[in-house]
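Q: How would the structure tokens look for this protein?
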Amino acid sequence: MKIHTNRSKILDIIVDDGPLAIVLARHDGTIAYCNDKFSFMLGYENSELIDMCFQDITHEDDLFIDIDLYASLNNREIDNYSLEKRYIHKDGQTIWTKLTISVCGNVGADQYSVMMIYDITEQKEKISSVIDEIQDKLERLDRSNKEGSSDGMDI
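A: Here is the predicted structure in token form.
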């Protein structure tokens, strides 16, 4: 594969073929651009997401922290932030992500935020499954210990 030295072609490769969902959001939090990975991750067409506000697709339990951090970013109190964030898929399911966001452009109407988003739903589900399995084993062990100690002997 020939490596392109044209900056525009390199950016196209990163945005279109890279491993991350990429979003460009306006100062008010509306989506100005998103790549196919983002729309696919959330089950929308790109055209449905354009002009949608991130608040409309953010899980309610993550909304307040995200709004606070986004305000700090827009006010240039911070340069960027990263967090695990849940989005709501078009069909209602929860999508866990790792979000990194930074601000670019001039303050005001020309200010945009660049979001790089990685879907971590599968990892979260595996971790949850392991935790459930461990809790089940601990509960069985606790019941077994209680049954074993009911013979009158103190342990």
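The beta strands are 21-26, 31-34, 80-88, 94-104, 112-119.

The chain is about 45% helix and 25% strand.

Upvote if useful.
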